[in-house]
Design brief:
The model has no long low-confidence stretch (mean pLDDT about 95). Helix 1 packs across helix 2. Strands 2-3-1-4 form a four-stranded antiparallel beta sheet, with helices on both faces. A hairpin with a 2-residue loop joins strand 2 and strand 3. About 20% of the residues are buried. It is built from five helices and four strands, in the order E-H-E-E-H-E-H-H-H. The chain has about 150 residues and is an alpha+beta fold.
Length: about 150
Amino acid sequence: MPSTHLALHYHVIFSTKDREPIIAPSWRERLHAYLGGVVRNGDAIPETIGGIHDHVHLLLGVRAKHCLADVVRDVKAVSSRWVHEEIGQRGFAWQEGYGAFTVSPSQREAVKQYIDQQAEHHRHRTFQEEYVELLKRSGVEYDERFLW
């Protein structure tokens, strides 16, 4: 085949270090916009970004040349530095790990809506409950001792 055709979409989730509720409503939208800019600068596609005070969700489209671990590492490092310098939260940090789930093209809209409705969603369940449910639904094996 003379060219490459692909549809690679990931639902990526990561939290603040120790799940600290440090992402304030006053700068949350700026952070989400900045995360999108970092993704774009890395030549990936930020389809939607959302979250609340202790974690973020990103729906990303990536290219064949991308390694997801590198994309996430760069997004976390650059955005953490931005929070330190622009927001003035010197103690801000992201957790070390992350969750990433493939998203089929037919499910992209549903995942976008899920991410866009995070504030409403978390009125009824915690981040920990949400994350464990995603792991189970995706068939990801995990040891609860190492989740948090």
